[in-house]
Each structure stands twice: as C-alpha cells, then as structure tokens.
Specification:
The chain is mostly helical and 232 residues long. Helix content is 72%, strand content 4%. The longest helix has 32 residues, at 193-224.
Length: 232
C-alpha cells in the first residue's frame, strides 16, 4: 500500500532553498535577510517568508534582532571548534552504530557515494564532492538506528555545512578526505565498528585543523562571493 506523503508547505520549500544558499555563501555571514525582498523574489506572502526564516532560526542559520530583523548567523572560530568537537563525538557514535546495525544495501549505498566523492576529487569538482559527502553521511544517519542521535547531528550539521563547504578548497582537503572516506568504506563493509569510529573521529579532527588554520581566509572569501541565486 502506497504511503501518502504530504506536499511541503510553501514556507518549507523556501526554507530549504535559503538553507542551501546560506551554506554555499549566496547569503553572507552578517547579511540581513529582508522579508519584503524575499517575498518579492519568491512571489509569496511575507508570512510564508517569515515562517521560513523562523525554521532557519531553529538551526541557528539566521538570528533575529530587534529593530533589525533576520541576519545570517556568523560563528566565531571558538564556536566552530566547539561544533567540530561535538561532531567528532556524535559522528563516531553514529558510524559505530551504523557498522553494527546497517543493512547490506545501506552499506553498498555508502560505498557508492564515497566512490562519487573520489571521482569528484579526481575531477577537482568541489560542488560534486560536497554533495557526495553529505549523500553518504545521510545514509549513515538513516542506518545508525537512533532518531535522537540523528536529531542531534542534523542540528550541528546545519551550522557546520557552510564552513565545511568553504574549507574543501584548502590544504589538499579533497585528496585527504577521499583517502579517509575510502578507508571508512572498507571498515564499514567489514563491520569493523571500532575502526570506523576511529577513522571518522580522526578525520573530523583533521577537518577542524583546516577550519582553525584558514578561518579568516574562509570568512573573507565568503563575504567576497557574488550572489548567484535563481530569481523566483
């Protein structure tokens, strides 16, 4: 019997699009999100835009200020390093449980997306690598078997993704990431939960060093990027 899926509300669709644009630097840290302008852009009511921004505020992607409205949240270096430390602990647990609980089909999907990441590294396609990265981590969330852990990780990942996106261009990050992910695929396929957890924790520590080393450069580059959103 086919399960009915409710179509997304207008505000949900807008929130999803704005989230992707914030992650990829279309909207810059500290930039105002003007409700009237967004309503005109999407051809919707200001109420729908306000609901979308409220959704993004729950993930700390935007912050509402009195007399100023909504602004894209800017995290300082220490806040980011704290998030990466939280990520290290939570992802180690998620990967460990995935290795134990996942179906063979889920493991094969992780391997497929990791291969896509490697292909993107060879082509030096940052966009493709970014998408492949989060496609295979989505499968890990699906197969780890804990709704509470998934909820905790999703809330931290929403904040972290835009900085992760910016960091992929530094210090041979794509090549090193590809090596870690390939080893992770082998560990998961062999159901070596301890090895998989150790690999992902080590990888996230590596990622944190890139964030720490290039934080100022990444923020400057993000603020210089021209807007490339689709109109409508």
């Amino acid at each position: 019997m086919e399960v009915y899926q409710r179509p997304p509300k207008v505000s949900e669709s807008i929130a999803q699009q704005l989230k992707q644009e914030i992650i990829k630097g279309v909207y810059k840290p500290g930039e105002r999100m003007k409700i009237m302008d967004l309503a005109k852009r999407f051809g919707v009511s200001q109420t729908s835009v306000r609901e979308a921004l409220k959704t993004l505020e729950k993930s700390d992607l935007v912050t509402e200020y009195p007399h100023k409205g909504y602004v894209v949240t800017e995290l300082d270096l220490q806040e980011l390093l704290d998030i990466w430390k939280i990520k290290e602990k939570l992802w180690a647990l998620a990967v460990e449980w995935f290795a134990i609980r996942a179906t063979e089909e889920q493991i094969q999907r992780v391997k497929y997306h990791i291969k896509q990441f490697r292909d993107a590294y060879i082509e030096y396609d940052v966009e493709k690598a970014f998408e492949a990265n989060f496609q295979f981590t989505d499968v890990i969330l699906e197969g780890c078997g804990s709704k509470k852990l998934v909820s905790l990780l999703q809330s931290t990942e929403d904040q972290a993704k835009r900085y992760r996106y910016l960091s992929m261009e530094y210090d041979d990050n794509l090549r090193i990431s590809s090596q870690y992910f390939t080893e992770l695929a082998y560990a998961l396929e062999s159901r070596n939960a301890q090895k998989a957890a150790e690999l992902i924790a080590e990888y996230i520590r590596f990622s944190a060093t890139i964030i720490q080393r290039y934080y100022n450069a990444m923020i400057s580059k993000c603020k210089e990027k021209p807007r490339k959103h689709k109109i409508g």
